[in-house]
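Reviewers asked in the last cycle whether our approach scales beyond single polypeptides. To address this, we selected a multi-component target totalling 743 residues and predicted its structure end to end. The input consisted of the following lines:
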Amino acid sequence: MKAPFLRKWIPALLIGVIALTGCAQQNNSAAPDNSVPASNSQAATESGSTDKIKLRMTTWSTADSYEMQKSVLDSYMKEHPNVEISFESVPQNYDDKLIAQFAIGDAPDIITVGDTQVPIFGKNGGLADMTPFIEGDNGLDLNEFYEDIVKYGQYQGKLYAMPKDWTNMAIIYNKKLFDEANLPYPQPGWTWEEMYETAKKLTKREDDKVVQWGLKLPGANQRRVQPLVLAYSDGVVSPDGSKYEGYMNSPGMIKAMQWYSDAYHKDQITPGSTDTDAFKGIDMFAAGKVAMELNGRWPIEDYLKDPQLEFGTVPLPVGPNGANNFVFYGGWSIYEKSPNKEAAWDVIKYMTSRGGSEIFGDFGFVAYKPVAEEKGQATDVNYKSFTDDIPNNKIMPDTLDPDYPKTGKPAFTEALEKILLSETDVKQALDEAAAAADAAKNK
Amino acid sequence: MRKPKSLLRRKEAWIFYMLISPWLIHLIALDAGPMLASLYFSFTEWNMLTPPEWIGLSNYIFALSKDPLFWKSLSITFGFAVLSVPLNLVVGLALALLLNVSLPGTRLFRTIYYLPSQINGVAVMVMWIFVFNPELGLLNSLLGLFGIQGPGWIFDPDWALPSLIFMSLWSVGGGTMIWLAGLKGIPDSLYESAMLDGAGSWKRFVYITLPLLTPTIFFNLITGVIGALQKFGEAYVMTKGGPLNSTRFFNFHLYDYAFSKFEMGYASALAWLLFIIILVLTLIVFSTSGRWVYYGGEKK
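The resulting structure, written as structure tokens, was:
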């Protein structure tokens, strides 16, 4: 009777057969583990009689995004024939595999990381501090990068990652649907209440069934709800990351979550989970099913290609606590135990500054100022709503509390699930969440 | 022509080890190391990044006395097993009885019922997500034809676990094939003599078919229980253990600690607890088997 147990579980624990939803850019589609083995690098090592430097780099990207990064690496290798980089794509189970590689001391030299991973690995180890390389002979002038973005690679004064690309959030709205309803387009500085009222007017019903929603909200995604949280409260966790009681269930949080609950249940201005499931695989905004959506920059390149779609962007609304936003960040780190840190740094330097940014800047925001300006990040009518909001980026609970994945995150997610499921006592749900988060904290 | 017992025993033992040797080699060469390592880790606190720290029995104590979801996930897992295993046994046997009838087209039906159990894993689970879709799914569309507003299935905390139990019937055909093999092993002569004695079909089923099928019931019961207690994929792929933890199977709980919370030590302890539970349960079923499992060649 042991056989199935062992066969299934021990490898699963060590290699990780299943994915972890960590980063926004990672897709959640379920597929068996098809991580790419490091066959290239092995082959290279076997045939390597020359003194070429061999580097391994890993990413969760696939398809176009992978090819784009590969092309940057190819240009680098053309300029530096003594360096050979094998590029491993791990679209599923990225975190699991990475942690397993850390555990056995065999992680790739260059590691793609997301903002939520920096504090975890910064606290527990795995990534090298880049400060000596930045300040070294082959260094970089950090003033050429947006400080607000660079800081996502920092943890407790050390720099663990340099930015690849990033996006914060904005509201994308459908101009046609606004025109139909005779509503003026939203303007920067609008409030969450105004957005709610606007969405109400943009919600259309036929025989009690909603056929068009005013606004698409991010469901139980606790991270994307943070702008609403911070608009009304001081956040889910205390600034020192030690306490949830009094924060996750503060009066401001209750107000924010009541707003959220009303949007789903009382006025149904946003599609519920069964509605979004029904539209799985369809972009509800592009299909004209929702008039506004809270999103990052990701879909904009596709929307621009759609001649039917007339859209605009506007910064996130503000609340009693002012304006706030947050960033999804992708960056590169150097493995702590890499034998070729200098070489890895040189590749990262190339990718994070002009060499990579010129390519990545066509599809996402980059942090390297000269290229960001050339790409019109701060001036383009659609991008401006995002970039104007950079000063309002707030620190996320993941950074305040490195234990967030096991304390506040599951607790808050469960509270959100309760709120989404049916009209519920918001205060009670948040009280329970705060207690659960603190209990996990004090384990 | 009785052979000395010891020689027969020795020969049987030899055949036994030969037959299980692929598994045995696999265990020793590939599994034993990681298994022992996980036993060690279960006594440590280990996040896979910093070296493991010995904490004695703390993980086990935390599981049994403090972890708010330990007992919940265990009861969800047992609830699933208690309902899905008998359901699969009964439906599997019923199908096998039907497919055992020699009629034109029987072979085709055998294939049809067997096929789903061969198409398994994530692809099937993703398909079932669509079947269960409350708005557009196959199930609620069918119910809609009769004017019934179907439930939210896997999206409703009260229906999610029953939905997965229902879905477990998808692979019932695998068991059916084993039932069929068992049925084929029952000699026709027994049925013929029973018919001469005037036994009707129900009596023949109860007094001949069932007793002679007990080894098959035994096998399907044990593998079914073990499989049910190790449910994971459905929770991972379809429900993420939700909604509101209603499908948080024990193994999903374990996975969550290992890879979302980076507590590999605690996850290892959970794995060993499940191992012990399954071991004890299997031993219990085995120990009762002498009383109800009847092997044809055995002397009572």
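Residues 63-79 of chain A form the longest helix (17 residues). We regard this as preliminary and will revisit it once experimental data from Aim 1 are available.
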